[in-house]
């Protein structure tokens, strides 16, 4: 289960966004920075942890995810795709992941759980790029890719805005999301590692 399999569909929906970014003179790197700014703002909003802030955070997470697809499409349109741009995109994505999860954890005072969740997420992403580094190609698969995590964080923000009360074992929807990121994140990292190990 991974939304990264829907990239061909997303590519078809990108046209108006890519055209608009190109017409106003944005570069792919600038779009990457704007996407990162959305993630920073989302983390702050989730840390505030009010219903309105959760709704705003959800919107900003969705924007981060969408703009993260736009920058690559814009680079292809402008014929400026480069290793430097790819590096910038990956670095900003990792910081975005950290800030979004840190904001979620801060909002519910679950710092240890937040650390476990962000570790799972970072290991998943690390394995994706490390597999590429050993010559097997970029790995986006697994139980929970970045697109899945952003979608879940956005949906969780919407649910937390509507229903912020605890629902299971004193954990609200945000706490449950952090548990999911912890467990499934590490399982996804192991899944990627095991698949690459067998290929090697």
Q: Would you write up a description of this structure?
A:
This protein has 200 residues and is mainly alpha-helical. It is 78% helix and 0% strand. It has eight helices and no strands. It has helices at 7-13, 15-23, 28-48, 51-78, 83-107, 111-133, 146-162, 173-199. Helix 6 packs parallel to helix 8.
Question: Which percent range describes the beta-strand content?
Answer: under 5%
Poorly predicted runs: none
Succession of helices and strands: HHHHHHHH
Which percent bin holds the helix content?
Answer: over 70%
SS class: mainly alpha
The mean pLDDT is 87
* Gap between N and C termini: 24 Å
Largest sheet: none
What is the number of strand segments?
0
Rounded radius of gyration (Å): 17 Å
Silhouette? globular
Work out the helix count. 8
Give a short summary of the structure.
This protein is an all-alpha fold and 200 residues long. It has eight helices and no strands.
Strand and helix layout:
Blueprint: H1 7-13, H2 15-23, H3 28-48, H4 51-78, H5 83-107, H6 111-133, H7 146-162, H8 173-199
Helix pairs in contact: 2-4, 3-4, 3-5, 4-5, 4-7, 5-6, 6-8, 7-8
Please name the defining characteristics of this protein.
mainly alpha, 78% helix, 200 residues
């Amino acid at each position: 289960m991974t939304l990264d399999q829907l990239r061909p569909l997303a590519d078809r929906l990108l046209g108006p966004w890519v055209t608009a970014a190109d017409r106003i003179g944005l570069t792919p790197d600038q779009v990457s920075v704007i996407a990162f700014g959305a993630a920073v703002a989302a983390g702050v909003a989730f840390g505030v942890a009010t219903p309105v802030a959760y709704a705003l955070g959800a919107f900003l997470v969705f924007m981060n995810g969408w703009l993260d697809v736009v920058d690559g499409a814009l680079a292809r349109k402008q014929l400026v795709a480069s290793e430097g741009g790819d590096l910038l995109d990956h670095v900003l994505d990792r910081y975005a992941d950290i800030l979004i999860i840190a904001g979620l954890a801060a909002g519910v005072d679950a710092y240890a759980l937040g650390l476990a969740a962000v570790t799972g997420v970072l290991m998943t992403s690390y394995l994706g790029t490390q597999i590429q580094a050993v010559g097997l190609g970029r790995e986006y698969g697994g139980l929970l890719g970045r697109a899945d995590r952003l979608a879940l964080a956005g949906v969780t923000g919407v649910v937390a805005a509507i229903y912020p009360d605890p629902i299971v074992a004193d954990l609200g929807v945000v706490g449950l999301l952090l548990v999911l990121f912890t467990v499934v994140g590490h399982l996804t990292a192991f899944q990627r590692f095991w698949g690459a190990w067998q290929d090697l």
